[in-house]
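note to self — DONT lose this again. spent like an hour looking for the file last time. sequence + predicted structure for the chain T wanted, 303 res
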Amino acid sequence: MAAGQSRRCGTVEPRSHLQFDAKPERSDPVLARMLQEPLGGQWGEMSVMMPHLFQGWNCRGPQKYKDMIMDIGTEEIAHVEMLATMIARLLENSPVEAQEDAARNSVVGAVLGGSWVEDVIVAGMNPQHALVSGSGAMPADSVGYPWNAKYTIASGNLLADFRFNVTAEGQGRLQVSRLFNLTNDPGVKRMLAFMIARDTMHQNQCLAAIEETAANGPEETPVPSNFPQSLEDGRVSYQFWNCSEDTESSEGRWSAGTTPDGEGTFEYLASPQPISSDEGQLNAVDPRLYGTPTHPVPKTAKE
């Protein structure tokens, strides 16, 4: 798919455009650093884009699910582009005035380790934005940790992946909402408001897909539903184990009544006991590995 198509959700035009404006009113290297989190952090747009793309490419389920997943994944490419563009524009100039404004924000000052302008100048800007990327965005989070492909969840099980996607969209929306309150730049806030709204839609899309998948197949709870429950240890399948001293957990929906999968009844165990006689003791290790033995090594053996 061409770049213009990814940004316009399928419409090919002679001149491509961003999906939404990425135009800050002023330069702000401190804010640029913070925006790296929704770009390349664990719950950033790259971490939402990649799972959707791989889930779609690997999907063997009904075509409607594959198409929906690819729709979101392709849209997320546009979100990555918007954030990268915004970060680059925030780094086009780095006036001291912008850093002074950041220092006046007590929350930002605390995050950056102080509210003195000198502290913000030294600690606020990510030096890699100047030294590595030449005032451009990076595939990294707000503290410079590189984006990790291990964030990509594509299990091949639609219901498991949809549930992860809801979590990813929720965590992403949470962080962007926090960022919305950490900037006074109208241009940045407009773009973040757009992204927050799209996260609202994507959460609802995935929840609707979960509802439909569970109701009509091909997957239901517990995941994976095609593993025979007759092979699991049914004694503990629906037991709630109170493994702490408090007992307030007994008041929840999860402690009594029919289980959500409709296959059992919750049983609350206030004081669960081990069902094993295994004390977990290990046998002696091979002496050539020089591990610590259970008993002192005789002198003759040492010699």
